[in-house]
Amino acid sequence: MNARCRGMDPLLDAYLDSELAPAQVVEVDRHLQECGACAERIALDRAIRAGVRRTVRATPMPEGLRERVVARMLDEAKDRPHLGDDRMIERGKMLPWHVVLPLASAAAIPLALGMAGAVSERAPRVAKATMASTAEEMRPAQSASVVDLDRMLDQFVEWHERPLPPEVTNETELVKFEPYVGVPMKAPALASFGGKLVGGRMLTTGSASQTAAMLYYTLPSGHRVSIYVFDPSRVPARPTRLSPRTMGRDEVWVGKVRGYTVAAPIRADVGYAIASDLDEEQTTRLAVATVP
Amino acid sequence: MSFFSRRRPARPDALDAFEAEALSHLEALYRVASRLTKNPADAEDLVQDALIKAMRARDQYQPGTNLKAWLLKILTNTFINRYRRGGLERSVLDGPDTEPLADGWMSTASMSAMRDPETLALRPLLEAEIDRALAEIPEEFRLAVVLSDVEELSYKEIAEVMGCPMGTVMSRLHRGRKLMQQALHEHAVLEGITSKTSQPEKDAAPIDLASFRARKRGVA
After folding, report:
1. Most exposed residue of A29, A289, B26, B155, measured as fewest CB within 10 angstroms of its CB?
2. ipTM score assigned to the predicted complex
3. Mean pLDDT value of segment A26-30
């Protein structure tokens, strides 16, 4: 080992860890070509690292560990802060769409598989929804049962809390939802609030008889706002958990649903609802602005 | 149907996205835990406690950062609090780290023999020996080496997991690896794989942080 090698020594670790700048990598590479001793040394170090990786990765997991861990996590999850819990609201504030949606995407594949596999009676409907090309195919049968608004609001809040990945991300694509929702799709005018459309998707309520388009918005403050567009003719019941509120000439249902603020403009032809973690005043303003 | 179920069951039947992603790192958490505790039962407890703590502290996770590194940080802290009150730092100061360290320098022949880790004859030797060598080096070196070589964390991520400056990470890695080379060299000599022609080198200090950063400059 000569003086040059001694100078190399401190670099070799970082070289193998891919933490060197390109110029230093070139420098080390050149030395390794010239110096057999250092080349041997690097080769040995590589072998040891590969051995460490292989040895540690081969660590056997105790039998049943995964099951026990999942059981404990599920037990813990029942106390998981959720809607109606103040901590959840705080979290909602801290998680903008660009953060929440990748998490939702991660869950989407198992969800889709679960749906197709577990609920076989439902599978044809899912397949049909995917392939349908005309409004006729997609319009829910008129005989389908109506869903009361309270139950829909619960679902809206659930979707707001745990959004699925968007199907479209461009405002011009929202018209694609029209055949499914059965009402005209116009992007809510949230520009005056600095609201930015992140994306949108179609959703079906639990009974599958009512569909809604969900639009993901984000405000400059980082708050997420979910706007739902649906056919109000299929929701005759008035909400019991929201109170009417007048703002200017507009009337809006507003109230808390499981910790989130929900507002729905009282309007006949197109149904809108908003879920957010903003206060009722702000949410009401948004609701009024939502109506095109 | 149950995805949109209105009422949350007493015990949910599914983990949410965050929890599922955390669970996907179970194997990594377990193998690191088992290298810390050296005991499967303790390792299991450690992993379970770390995941539960992660669920409770999920608000503190910075989305977009390495979730595995964040979980490993919780696991490491849990380990320190339970088994090593006083932390890793002191054991470094008190431990063998203060002794001068010599390179386990090998003959060219022995290194040629060990160079290919996939060589069948050599493989069992390396695995058994690596296992023991890892178990015998000081904890903080072992953790740094495992986080780097097995979990492929960056120096910066390791620094966060171990709660120490990056320079300390580099020093721990350097010393840990030197000890590994030494242990494997000694074994190779004992096994007659190599003759003791090697000349122990005085340990060179790892590259210092300032010059490291200077070198790193220019890297995106």
Report:
1. A29
2. 0.72
3. 88
